[in-house]
Amino acid sequence: MQTLASILHPYSIDQFLSENWTQRGVFIPAEAPDKFRHLFSWEQLNNILNFHKPRNPELRFALNGKILPSSDPQEWIKHCKQGASLVLSRINERVAVLAELIWALQQEIGHRKAHFNTYCSWPSQQGFDCHYDTHEVFILQIEGQKEWFVFEDTLKYPLREEEFHHQKQPEGEPYIQCILNPGDVLYIPRGHWHYAIAQDQPSLHLTLGIHCFKGRDWLEWLVEEIQWQEIWRKNLPLMPDGDTTEIEEYVNNLCGHLTANLTQQKGKLAQKYTQAQTLANTRLPRMQEISLPSQVGFGLFEQGLETRLRAPKFQKVRVEPLAEGGYQLVTANKKVSFKGLEPNIVENLVKHVFSSETFTVGDVAKWLPECNLDTTILPLLSGLIKEGIILVD
Questions:
Q1: Within 10 A of 362 (CB to CB), how many other CB atoms are there?
Q2: What per-residue confidence (pLDDT) applies to 284?
Q3: Which residue, 117, 254, 260, 308, is most buried by CB atoms nearer than 10 A?
Q4: Structural domain boundaries of the chain?
Q5: Could you say which DSSP state residue 312 is in?
Q6: pLDDT 10s digits, 341-381
Q7: How far apart are CA 362 and CA 377, in angstroms?
Q8: What share of the chain has pLDDT > 70, as a percent?
Q9: Would you say domain 2-212 falls under CATH 2.60.120.650?
Q10: C-alpha to C-alpha distance for 376 and 119, rounded to whole angstroms
Q11: Which residues pair with 137 in a beta bridge?
Q12: Which fold has domain 294-392?
């Protein structure tokens, strides 16, 4: 887990996973104040505000624990002068280095819902009241200082709809009280109450939020998986004059059927669920990497044998045999079939292509010496490029 380890450094990732992850917050002082300055800056924040014109709910202002009404850009500086914290959500969708960090992290941990928000706060101001989040939180301090207070949870593993407004706040003292300086990290587990106050200078920090899969996600997947079976589509018995005897017996039989099915199929169902999540864990269908103009079929091999290619970043690929013969490559977004190629050719190609950072057309010719360059290799590579399975680098 190189990406997560780099965020936590110098704190041991093994210690973090055994003692802190989902259990207890931890404050990690930095060895250098510029640790995260390559990720974000005041300049990048200003560029987004000036040229991308974000709107609510992507852009929010919080003052004295309340979210201010949506406002026009000419009001933004006024809000800041009043002491309102400026919040920009999901800036990984606007900043390439943050997007790559998110994709790398998702591939490492196998959970696909991570995002970055940025918070700009003003001296001695507290934008948000004491609250908890329903996802794992990492605070990465970029500029300025901010004092944080972290309390124990009062509800174990709250779900998204279990908002803190309706929960009892902690009564004890915070178990973490610390001042984050540039480069410092603070981890806050899901459900742990917290609030923060900027110090003598304006504060700029990134919040990395990770929404992990839960047992409920598997239950929802299971319903989708089995609901088309006839037994689950059938009407339940009537309840004449409120008599529930027949429907109770029927539901008992459904429970028995479900239990028997889960017992018999649990290994297969677990494997099918995990395979589906593994393929989809870094990219939603709309997030396939694009490389123009080559994917439209232009300028594919302008450098001849020296044309350099690569696999899309963080794309997972699985090879499956076809019932009618041949193979198919399966990604989160599509399936590409290989017909008429010997199994060893497909296996050799996949082994090299997806284990190399980059490679050339000439490399492929060396990997597949039994294949003709013009009639087999170039058409094969051309098809893979147009499908987005590989890209011209």
A1: 16
A2: 43
A3: 117
A4: 2-212, 216-280, 294-392
A5: P
A6: 777 888 888 888 878 889 999 999 999 999 999 998 898 89
A7: 10
A8: 96
A9: yes
A10: 53
A11: 188, 209
A12: Outer Surface Protein A; domain 3 (3.90.930)
- Strand ranges inside the chain, DSSP E: 26-28, 59-63, 66-67, 85-88, 113-121, 136-143, 146-153, 176-180, 185-188, 192-198, 203-211, 308-310, 318-321, 327-330, 335-338, 359-360, 391-392
Q: Which amino acid is at 74?
A: Q
Peptide bond into 10 cis (omega under 30): yes
| Length, in residues, of the chain | 393
pLDDT at 265: 85
pLDDT in tens, 272-292: 888 777 655 544 434 567 788
Place of tokens 């920009």: 88
Handedness of CA 61, 159, 149, 17 (dihedral sign): negative
The per-residue pLDDT for 251 is 94
Q: Nearest-CA neighbor of 206 among 348, 109, 102?
A: 102
Amino acid, res. 160: R
Q: What is the pLDDT of residue 114?
A: 92
